[in-house]
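Translate sequence into structure tokens.
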Amino acid sequence: MRVDKGRMFYDYEETAIKNLMVDNCFLLEDIFVTQDVCKSREKEQWVNVLAKKRESESF
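Result follows.
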């Protein structure tokens, strides 16, 4: 984790975030990369994740 101007960032790459989600019981719906929309950061990319928490199994 890093802090930049009071904001926290985790800087995951696509493979690492996939593993984190699966290991923590999430169902991945989609993962995609987008460019930052701010002119001063247009070379930065963001990994976006759509996930659902898995329902616990009933016994």
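Note: The chain has a mean pLDDT of 89.
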